């Protein structure tokens, strides 16, 4: 058994790595400029609930600009960073994830994102004159990723052959939609060096929203769970975006798309920075299978609920809980 004699690490679980396989060919890669993109997006959402998109039109310089601002923030002193905390649920957080006892080897900033005008939770550090470059990079990045998400969601509708094409994108582009943006920093964990173990950076979970759009620096750590329950590592690609199907999209498609279980494993050497935009519908929106997708005599697998009800239940849960289980018809 491995004992890590480092205060603060004792509650964070160690993960053995031997069973995780590298997943280069198995993560679906979709070039958005190709004519078969719509069909490939649907295939990926059914099989993995996860895909990587290339040729997405967002300049890598914009991603790097925001990443550099995040790195600048995370290198401030703890006292300075904690002026923007605790995350209740938005703000700066360190190790604690959510309010129900989950912990991980990371620090983060969580912002609520409003659509019109495009705005986000204001935090203490943004008051500094030097934070002007952070704000402008963040706003530009959020606007670009919204356009990308809308495109991917319209491709989904096209691939599913349902009209109107904005039937899914409209839910999360609505002016009252409920977006969240997350900047994560997983520092290297030197005590792991020399051991064949990883430390839980962000424990296994599914995202409650419709989709999440993730970009990370060139570091490893993200793992997804396949249908057979095995874990695979997602090779890093700092120029591409990764899309996760969330619980709400699983319900909208009556289980046809799969809300992907994923986690992040911290490493002994690398510093990982990821930026994730979670696209949720307006609070009052009913989350139920799209009628356009229901076959004759097909019934919903889920009880009816609003996004507000689902979100409230999610915030009472632990990360690894099967949140959709509460809403499945038995
Ligand atoms: C998982 C997806 C997003 O990161 C998040 C997370 C949220 C949080 O960090 O506050 C939650 C988690 C996430 C689901 C269950 C609850 C709420 C932590 C947690 C234990 C911002 C979200 O929307 O749900």
What do you see in this structure?
The protein is of the alpha+beta class and 330 residues long. It is 24% helix and 28% strand. It is built from seven helices and 17 strands. It has helices spanning 37-47, 60-74, 78-82, 132-160, 169-173, 247-252, 307-315; strands at 14-16, 21-22, 29-31, 50-54, 91-97, 102-114, 119-120, 177-186, 197-205, 211-216, 222-225, 231-233, 241-245, 262-266, 272-282, 286-287, 305-306. The strands form three sheets. Strands 3, 4, 5, 6, 7, 8, 10, 13 and 15 form a nine-stranded mixed β-sheet that branches. The chain has a six-stranded mixed β-sheet with strand order 1-9-14-11-12-2, with no helix packed on it. The protein has a two-stranded antiparallel sheet with strand order 16-17. A hairpin with a 4-residue loop joins strand 6 and strand 7 (119-120). The mean pLDDT is 93. The structure holds gibberellin A4. Gibberellin A4 binds at residues 89, 97-98, 100, 102, 110, 180, 182, 205, 207-208, 278, 314-315, 317-319.
Compact overview of the structure:
By secondary structure, the protein is an alpha+beta fold.
Bound molecules: gibberellin A4
Order of helices and strands: EEEHEHHEEEHHEEEEEEHEEEEH
Mind telling me the C-alpha Rg? 19 Å
Helical percentage: 10-25%
Q: Give the count of helical stretches.
A: 7
User: Termini distance?
Assistant: 41 Å
Amount of beta strand: 25-35%
Anisotropy-based shape: globular
SS-derived structural category: alpha+beta
Q: If you average the pLDDT, what whole number results?
A: 93
Residue windows where pLDDT falls under 50 for at least 5 positions: none
Number of strands: 17
For the sheet with most strands, the description reads: 9 strands, mixed
